[in-house]
Every structure is written in structure tokens, then in C-alpha cells.
Write a structure and sequence with these properties.
By secondary structure, the protein is mainly alpha-helical. It has one domain: Four Helix Bundle (Hemerythrin (Met), subunit A). It has nine helices and two strands. The chain has helices at about 15-25, 40-50, 60-65, 80-100, 125-140, 145-150, 150-165, 170-175, 180-220, and strands spanning about 110-115, 125. Strands 1-2 form a two-stranded antiparallel sheet. A hairpin with an 8-residue loop joins strand 1 and strand 2. Helix 1 packs across helix 4 (about 80-100). The longest helix has about 40 residues, at about 180-220. The N and C termini lie far apart (about 55 Å). The model is unreliable at about 210-220 and about 245-248 (pLDDT under 50). This is UPF0149 family protein. InterPro entries: SEC_C_motif, YgfB-like, YgfB-like_sf.
Length: about 250
């Protein structure tokens, strides 16, 4: 089967470890630009797309994976390769969504590790992940205003902002001065993601219900006033649910 054919059913399949490594290697390969997100940054970027209040189509966020300029787009060797990599990214995105829907408290961001000088101690490093997340958030920032207006929301965003933003005040820079501080902030990120996911959940459900109701209105045939009422009462519609003062 050609890799260029993206089967919608296949997009629901989680990435295997081998496929995850393949995507990781592609993102840092010579065919991508220096601006392309790493696998950690991509995970953060896609998570921002997944937990927000609106559904963002891939055509809108995909260019940001490669970099800020059109010139950052990968030099794919073939269309098959392009479709295959796109499929891996979309499956990664769907895997994030599935994990959050199952249990947001079990979501595990793809963090890196760092060492200071010749120290044998490894620190959990969420900088690249948080950078990707903040980049994704910036893409749809207007949609997130309610969270920025919430004092609790600002607290949830704090570790993500400190670890993933470039424009920090001197006071903020002092909070990420040591590897211990950065690791402590990194460890706060999973709880923040779960909380933000839950914050937007009622909004996402409401949007889904409105879309569903709109689709039903478009597909269901219109009931005539003299037709039997669809509620099953046996009365004509105009004498039942079609009457302004009748409720069921």
C-alpha cells in the first residue's frame, strides 16, 4: 500500500515506538529547517491545539510545525514521504486527544533531559515542550482570553510561560535561573495541562452540541403543520409540538 494514502481509520491508531522515533529523526534531519520544532516542541504545540476551546484545522497549525516562514517547509523527497510524515503528525495529535479524553491526569508530556557541565545528575527539562505549547497558544490566543482573564488560569499558565516564553522580565528570569528551578517548574506542567483541559471542556462540549444540533436541523425533513407530530402523540403537529404554548 502506498504511504501517500491517508486512511481516516488509520489516523486513530497511536504511534508505535518505532514510528515515534522515525518522526523524531525526521524533525531534526537535514530536510527540515533549524526553525522546525523538535519532537518535544511538537508534543507541546499539538497539546495546545488539543486542549483549547476551539477546533483548529491542520491546515492552520501545520505550517507552524516547520517554522515561521514558508521557506522553512521541509524539502520532502516525494509526495509519499510528505503524506507519510503528515500522517504520523496527525496520529500523534489524535493520540494526545485520546489520552486527555481518557484521563487528563494521566497525560505525560514528552519532556527532555539536561545536564549541567560535567554533572552526572540529569534534570527533567520542559523548555522545548513549553516553547512549543506557547507557540501553539499564540496561534489562537484570542480564543483563550477567558483563561487569561481568570486568576486561576494565570496560575496554571505560569510554569508554561516561564519555561516557554522568550520575553521574560528580570524578575521572571530569576525564577528559572537554576536547573533545580527549571525542573520544579517542569514538574508542574502536567497538572496545569489537566486543569486547562478541564477549564475548556464545558465550552468544547457546548460547541459540539451546537454543531450537532445544526447538522440535525439540516438533515431532518421539515415537519408540515398537518403532519403527525414527531413526538409520537398521534396528534397533528400544529395541535401538539407546533403549538406555541405546548411543551414536551
Amino acid at each position: 500500500m502506498s504511504k501517500s494514502k491517508l486512511n481516516p481509520a488509520d489516523l486513530a491508531t497511536p504511534l508505535s515506538e518505532k514510528e515515534f522515533d522515525e518522526l523524531d529523526e525526521f524533525l531534526i534531519s537535514e530536510v527540515t529547517s533549524e526553525e522546525t520544532l523538535t519532537i518535544e516542541g511538537l508534543d507541546g504545540y499539538l497539546t495546545a491545539m488539543a486542549i483549547g476551546p476551539t477546533t483548529v484545522p491542520p491546515s492552520y497549525w501545520l505550517p507552524g510545525v516547520w517554522g515561521p516562514s514558508e521557506d522553512d517547509a521541509p524539502a520532502f523527497e516525494t509526495m509519499d514521504q510528505a503524506q507519510h510524515i503528515l500522517g504520523l503528525i496527525l496520529r500523534n495529535m489524535n493520540g494526545i486527544i485520546t489520552t486527555l479524553e481518557d484521563d487528563p491526569d494521566e497525560f505525560e508530556p514528552v519532556f527532555g533531559f539536561s545536564r549541567v557541565d560535567d554533572s552526572e545528575r540529569e534534570y527533567i527539562d520542559g523548555e522545548a515542550w513549553a516553547f512549543g505549547f506557547m507557540q501553539g497558544l499564540a496561534l489562537v490566543r484570542a480564543d483563550w482570553q477567558a483563561l487569561f482573564d481568570s486568576e486561576q488560569g494565570q496560575a496554571w499558565l505560569s510554569p508554561l510561560h516561564l519555561m516557554g516564553s522568550e520575553d521574560l522580565t528580570p524578575e521572571e528570569l530569576a525564577l528559572i535561573d537554576t536547573p533545580e528551578q527549571r525542573e520544579a517548574l517542569t514538574k508542574q506542567i502536567p497538572a496545569s495541562i489537566a486543569a486547562i483541559y478541564r477549564f475548556w471542556l464545558p465550552h468544547r462540549q457546548a460547541v459540539h452540541e451546537r454543531k450537532l444540533a445544526s447538522a440535525m436541523q439540516r438533515t431532518e425533513p421539515k415537519v408540515g403543520r398537518n403532519d403527525p407530530c414527531p413526538c409520537g402523540s398521534g396528534k397533528k403537529f400544529k395541535k401538539c409540538c407546533g403549538a406555541a404554548d405546548t411543551l414536551h
